[in-house]
Amino acid sequence: MKQFSQETRERMRIASQLRWNGARGQQAREHISRMLVAKLDLEKVRSLYQQGKALKAIGAEFGVRADAVMRFMEKHKIPRRKRWEAGRLCGPQHPNWKGSEASCKSLHMRLRRQRGTPQHCTVCGTSDPNKWYDWANLTGKYDDFDDYKRMCRQCHRAYDKARRIAA
């Protein structure tokens, strides 16, 4: 281990004190004191988490950060949700939800999640695994997932071309 001179050790001690007494040090002290003092109610934490609340929201109720709630849950062996399980914010509950104002790509991703990936064409009846299949929108109402039809790429292009010519 490297040996520091007395002068260097004194400068390091002063720098450490400045860090600890500065703004970041104040945040660290408050966080540590909250962790030591905070008495989280096991049943309340468990019920809030099972209701689908996020760790951050649970922490806000107790006045602690999300990482303190996570450590508390690990200590008491409360199983964590998987990312895809119910309870996470999705759909209109999500703060970034745009509804029908979402991009075309986002709407198609939602459609695939809800109705799956098409494996055959309802127009020509093919189900060749070497072909590409799409969800083709029929009337231009992109946020209505009942307004889509399974089509192979060839039929989809022909349908869109015919619709553009008619318009």
Provide an overview of this structure.
- This protein has 167 residues and is mainly alpha-helical.
- It folds into two domains: 7-75, no CATH class; 100-166.
- The protein contains seven helices and two strands.
- It has helices at residues 6-21, 23-37, 42-50, 55-62, 66-75, 104-115, 153-166, and strands spanning 133-137, 148-152.
- Strands 1-2 form a two-stranded antiparallel ribbon.
- The longest helix has 16 residues, at 6-21.
- The radius of gyration is 28 Å and the shape is elongated.
- The mean pLDDT is 83.
Element layout with pairings:
Blueprint: H1 6-21, H2 23-37, H3 42-50, H4 55-62, H5 66-75, H6 104-115, E1 133-137, E2 148-152, H7 153-166
Antiparallel strand pairs: 1-2
Helix pairs in contact: 1-2, 4-5
What keywords describe this structure?
mainly alpha, 2 domains, 7 helices, 167 residues, elongated, two-stranded antiparallel ribbon
Average of per-residue pLDDT values: 83
Total separate domains? 2
Rounded Rg: 28 Å
Strand order of the largest sheet: 1-2
Cα distance, first to last residue? 79 Å
Shape: elongated
Number of strands: 2
| Individual helix count | 7
> Structural class, from helix and strand content?
mainly alpha
Which range does the strand content fall in?
5-15%
Q: Into which percent range does the helicity of residues fall?
A: 40-55%
